[in-house]
């Protein structure tokens, strides 16, 4: 389904087409990975002077409450690049509410590779971080600049996160920013055991800091689709479970996980990137449903924290639309030894094998490429499958 969306957008001559992508060199240079980009008509627009590029690889996400029709808002973003830090803080300043909440699901460096630039201060001895845009075409005084100051920081074991209170200053205006750096999600795995519990606690803690569901939590990993999509999907589905909506759904054949992930992918490509993340959502939802209903069951077997890949790096686990008959049932991924085992689209027609992701050009392959500031290298970077996020 997503492959068809990309193809339709590429073939359309209408810039207002839902699946259009801006392929200009200026925009491509701002992407961390060449194969992960925000839909042109579902992206955050930076507040910049007229004539300046307003692109940032970030997408506003809205998920509706099926009962009240209320809207729950997020922003899903790639991890900021070193040469675009001012853009990231521009987005936070203009798009977040009075109190901004940032959820960071990647470390800046994982397995020796940069996944995200260091965009915030973390040392009380050097508490202030300054940023500035550097466009050569902006008139004097029109560029976006400011500072971020670390007010305090602590480690919270219950959410396995470094929690920092920051002050964002732009001119004479200030904004409080709460930054949560989650330490429990490895680059090739899914959170298990205490890490899984901490992730669920993190969802609650960040929602409380945001105070209102209309104040979008800004969630990012590296590419901004895998771990980010999984976090947002689970947060939404667990909220529905807590309210009882999932258990009293009129359509018993509906697959809430499938529908939620598909809705996310309509707003940002590749959300919930691989089958392990997709399976993880079902596992957690089943576990939490059993707890809510007081059902005793055998514990869910944890997924391995590292998934072996063949030397050619081409392993892509299959994503399938799962049967709604059992909220915890899921198909196993294809044989990881198969060279042609590609990641398949979650958003496919149910009951069918679906379409394989288009692997002719850029492939989402676990952030294999280092994150250089060189624009040409960034255009060729590819997000990895299990890590991707």
From TrEMBL:
CDD domains: PTP_fungal. It comes from the Eukaryota. Transmembrane segments: none annotated. Residues 366-389 have a biased composition (Acidic residues). Signal peptide: none annotated. Residues 341-365 have a biased composition (Basic and acidic residues). Residues 1-21, 320-389 are annotated as: Disordered. Residues 25-288 form the Tyrosine-protein phosphatase domain. GO terms for molecular function: protein tyrosine phosphatase activity. SMART domains: PTPc, PTPc_motif. Residues 197-279 form the Tyrosine specific protein phosphatases domain. PANTHER family: RECEPTOR-TYPE TYROSINE-PROTEIN PHOSPHATASE, TYROSINE-PROTEIN PHOSPHATASE 1. Belongs to the protein-tyrosine phosphatase family. Non-receptor class subfamily. This is Protein-tyrosine phosphatase 2. It comes from Arthroderma benhamiae (strain ATCC MYA-4681 / CBS 112371).
């Amino acid at each position: 389904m997503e492959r068809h969306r990309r193809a339709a957008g590429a073939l359309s001559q209408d810039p207002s087409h839902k699946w259009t992508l801006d392929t200009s060199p200026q925009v491509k240079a701002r992407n961390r990975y060449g194969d992960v980009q925000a839909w042109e008509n579902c992206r955050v627009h930076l507040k910049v002077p007229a004539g300046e590029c307003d692109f940032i690889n970030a997408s506003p996400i809205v998920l509706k409450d099926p009962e009240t029709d209320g809207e729950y808002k997020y922003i899903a973003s790639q991890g900021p690049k070193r040469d675009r830090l001012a853009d990231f803080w521009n987005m936070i300043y203009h798009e977040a509410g009075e109190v901004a909440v940032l959820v960071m699901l990647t470390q800046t460096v994982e397995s020796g590779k940069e996944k995200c630039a260091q965009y915030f201060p973390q040392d009380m001895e050097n508490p202030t971080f300054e940023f500035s845009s550097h466009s050569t075409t902006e008139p004097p005084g029109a560029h976006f600049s400011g500072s971020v100051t670390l007010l305090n920081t602590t480690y919270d074991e219950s959410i396995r996160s470094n929690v920092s209170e920051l002050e964002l200053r732009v001119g004479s205006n200030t904004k409080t920013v709460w930054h949560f750096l989650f330490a429990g999600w490895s680059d090739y795995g899914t959170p298990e055991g205490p890490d899984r519990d901490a992730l669920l606690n993190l969802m609650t803690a960040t929602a409380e800091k945001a105070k209102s569901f209309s104040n979008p939590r800004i969630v990012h990993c590296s590419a901004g689709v895998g771990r980010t999509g999984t976090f947002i999907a689970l947060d939404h589905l667990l909220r529905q479970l807590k309210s009882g909506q999932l258990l009293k759904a009129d359509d018993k054949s509906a697959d809430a996980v499938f529908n939620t992930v598909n809705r996310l992918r309509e707003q940002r490509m590749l959300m919930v990137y691989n089958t392990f993340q997709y399976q993880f959502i079902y596992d957690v939802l089943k576990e939490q449903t059993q707890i809510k209903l007081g059902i005793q069951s055998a514990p869910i077997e944890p997924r391995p924290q590292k998934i072996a890949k063949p030397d050619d790096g081409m392993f892509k686990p299959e994503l399938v639309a799962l049967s709604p008959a059992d909220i915890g049932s899921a198909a196993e991924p294809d044989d990881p030894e198969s060279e042609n085992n590609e990641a398949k689209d979650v958003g496919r027609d149910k009951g069918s094998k679906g379409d394989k992701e288009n692997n002719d050009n850029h492939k989402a392959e676990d952030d294999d490429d280092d994150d250089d500031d060189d624009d040409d290298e960034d255009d060729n970077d590819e997000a990895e499958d299990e890590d991707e996020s």
